[in-house]
Amino acid sequence: MQTQAAVLWDYGRDWEIEELTLDNPREGEVLVRLTASGLCHSDEHVRVGDLPMDALPAIGGHEGAGIVERVGPEVRSVAEGDHVVLSFVPACGRCHWCAIGRENLCDQGAGLQIGLQQDGTSRHHVRGQDARLMCMLGTFSTHTVVNEDSVVKIDEDIPLDKAALVGCGVTTGFGTAVYGAEVGAGDTVVVLGIGGVGANAVQGARLAGATRIIAIDPAEFNREQARKFGATETFASAEEALEPLTEMTRGALANAALVTVDVTTANVVAQAISLVGKGGKVVLTALAPVTANQAEVPLFEVIAWEKRIIGCLFGHASPRSDIPKLLGLYRDGALLLDELVTRSYTLEQVNDGYEDMRSHRNIRGLIRYE
User: Which one of 62, 83, 124, 143 is the catalytic residue?
Assistant: First the structure.
């Protein structure tokens, strides 16, 4: 079939809208008609080259939802007509990590930067060339073919445009607080960076029972938005927050600092460590360039105060259980999804959406296909 997609031809360039030739799904694969795709910062990492794909051209997008239109042979988990969320990390259910409940580390995730189907071939073709897919999904298109390991069936009463957000940002942010930091009732939590992931880290901390949720972001708009999702205090920088945090906790500092900035740097890691007290957890969720290999870590302080630094992919979540759970919380009014979407865009406006993100004019932009 023929459709359109936002394609990256070279790092540092904008996304270009191209005609896409899409093959039929093969064994274990499904064709999904997408209704919406979130504009996540991870695609910006790909565009600028911080997170390079194995090869270009590549179709962007990894946060989407839609309806299954066709299934290939041996597909068992979904059928034509099912409503699904596309999970940015696949979950095969068979590898060691899936078996122990760590679906976010599924062995099939090894193909995320390769961007081909699990058999090593492509179903997506642009200008006669095979196209790679961001996270093996390519949601910057009205249709895509993906492995069934990457789709999670959901209830049909959930609006698909809101469900799309749970494919990455919502689950990542929520899980960063609830699973990564293990926030508990009465805790004090600091969230550094209030974008699509950080806002949901705030929500996760709120739902876990944190008493103080301190949002840190240099953009006034982002700080204002943080309060909608449960932030109790906001500051423009870690330096500005340190003295008030010390006073409000009587010197104990935060139980956890969640790093959800646009790009993790050595300085941000140092700031996060300075904000947590004894036994405190620093949870690193925001991506760093793949070449980054240094961080500013006060070793004596980390050892003597037993501070912990934790890496956190997809919020430690298991997509097949956590995506339906989070959508249930949305249905019950506990999890805010409508409020996350600052502005909607057409596919042709994808670069405008990312400019708004870079300029702090949206928390989460959303491409709507219908």
Answer: 62
Annotated active-site residue 168? The verdict is yes
pLDDT value of position 152: 97
Name the catalytic one among 40, 92, 98, 106: 40
In the set 98, 106, 135, 168, the catalytic residue is: 168
Does position 309 have pLDDT exceeding 80, yes or no? yes
pTM to 2 decimal places: 0.94
Asked if residue 321 has pLDDT above 80, the reply is yes
Domains of the chain: 2-167+337-368 (3.90.180.10), 173-313 (3.40.50.720)
What residues contact residue 363 under an 8 Å CB cut-off, 6+ apart? 194, 195, 196, 199, 222, 225, 340, 341, 342
Per the annotation, the verdict on 40 as an active-site residue is yes
Catalytic residue chosen out of the listed positions 37, 41, 45, 83: 45
Across 173-186, average pLDDT: 97
Q: Are 123 and 150 in contact (CB under 8 A)?
A: no
42 has catalytic annotation? yes
* Gyration radius of the chain's alpha carbons: 20
Residue of 37, 42, 141, 274 with catalytic role = 42
pLDDT digits (tens, 9 = 90+) for 23-59: 999 999 999 999 999 999 999 999 999 889 999 999 9
Helical residues (DSSP H) of 183-313, grouped into ranges: 198-208, 220-228, 238-248, 266-275, 299-304
Calculate ∠ Cα 117-118-119, nearest 5°: 90
Strands 151-153 and 83-86: antiparallel
Peptide linkage before 57 cis (omega within 30 of 0): yes
pLDDT reported for residue 289: 85
Inter-residue contact 221 to 361 (CB < 8 Å): yes
pLDDT of residue 296: 82
Residues 194-216 pLDDT 10s: 999 999 999 999 999 999 999 99
Residue 260 reports pLDDT greater than 90: yes
Tokens of 233: 């205090």
Residues 193, 217 contacting (CB under 8 angstroms):
yes
